[in-house]
């Protein structure tokens, strides 16, 4: 990871870690980089944060100053930007969002012409330009100066694309949507209404400050309560930029990304549509998912945490389904990124085709209790490779056997070691996580 760009773009507190000057320079570089041999065309989307407007204008100013044309989708989802870029011949796309973070954070995600996250080498060049390590870029002059274009039509085409993917009508099905007061607010209800659902919506009134606030996929309890109160058939919760989806079954139980991958993967495997009968997961996926996959002969790959790594594996091997426990699910036939609303449609397809409730579809998977604790350390690598720590981890792994697992990894962004245990009970998880953390402290490695 670079100085500014992490696994999910350039993210930080607005006007503290990520400023309008940064955004202007990102726009300046991209306008120049893609416009060296033609008039560059860049599409911009944003979520509902108060600061998204100023970043939109700063990016547009930088792009047009370098001679590029900036097409504004306005409030929209990350996957819609990816869709528009790859289907309408744009040089790249920019999404202004900090995803599930609180409203005062924001981020800049750059998407290449194929709809994927931009290459690391381009991010490195942007960082060098931001830090003044490269020559100043020329300003466009006269007729070469770029313009901004209202491009809400692109978002509408994406809505049409989603509607066209549904294989069955949702007529008379009571569906709850938690739009997280974010990007899904401008799209999700339109899709489900068009498909005939009885659509019930919460957290659909963004004011710039309430995005992700006690709602959405990271605060699923709001939708759980709503589904039970309204006696709904199913519910779907999204995050701020709607690239995640967590579902709630008819009983109010949470159906996370692991369960969604299982039911969709099994359905696709039965239909002969799952390449090599394999799904792609991260190391954080639950042991229960793997045990359920083993029972039905569904194979799985594991990557580092981050949908970026999931997609890289899928792309290299031609796999068609992958994702994260957090709800980033990628259906590569239809999208290049996680897409919360698309995921909802795929879950609905399984339910309708198999004529089973979501609770019934998930009943084959026993999700193991999982506990993750973070401990701040002076040096991540030293702490993880310490012989006594490794001995403690090995002892826990041996004690758990086939009935659990332990995972110890370094944070990608903080001076933190993450210790995660899955086991039959919460008490066992607590016991073994603390056992390893105590050794880290005893070795003088903790801050």
Architecture overview:
With 447 residues, this protein is an alpha/beta fold. It has helices at residues 20-34, 52-65, 78-87, 120-130, 152-165, 188-194, 221-230, 257-270, 287-296, 307-317, 340-354, 358-362, 380-385, 387-400, 426-442, and strands at residues 5-6, 9-13, 41-46, 69-75, 92-96, 105-112, 148-150, 174-178, 198-202, 234-238, 245-248, 254-255, 278-282, 299-303, 321-323, 329-331, 370-376, 405-410, 416-422. The strands form five sheets. It has a seven-stranded mixed β-sheet with strand order 1-2-6-5-3-4-7, sandwiched between helices. A five-stranded mixed β-sheet has the order 9-8-10-11-12, with helices on both faces. Helix 2 (52-65) links the parallel strand 3 and strand 4. The mean pLDDT is 95.
How confident is the prediction overall: mean pLDDT? 95
Main-sheet strand order equals 1-2-6-5-3-4-7
User: Globular, elongated, flat, extended or rod-shaped: what is the shape?
Assistant: globular
Beta-sheet strand percentage? 15-25%
Poorly predicted runs are none
Counted by DSSP, the helix tally is: 15
- What profile does the largest beta sheet have? 7 strands, mixed
The strand count comes to 19
Rounded to the nearest angstrom, the radius of gyration is 22 Å
* Percentage of residues in helical conformation: 25-40%
Global structural class:
alpha/beta
**What is the distance, rounded to the nearest whole angstrom, between the alpha carbons of the first and last residues?**
23 Å
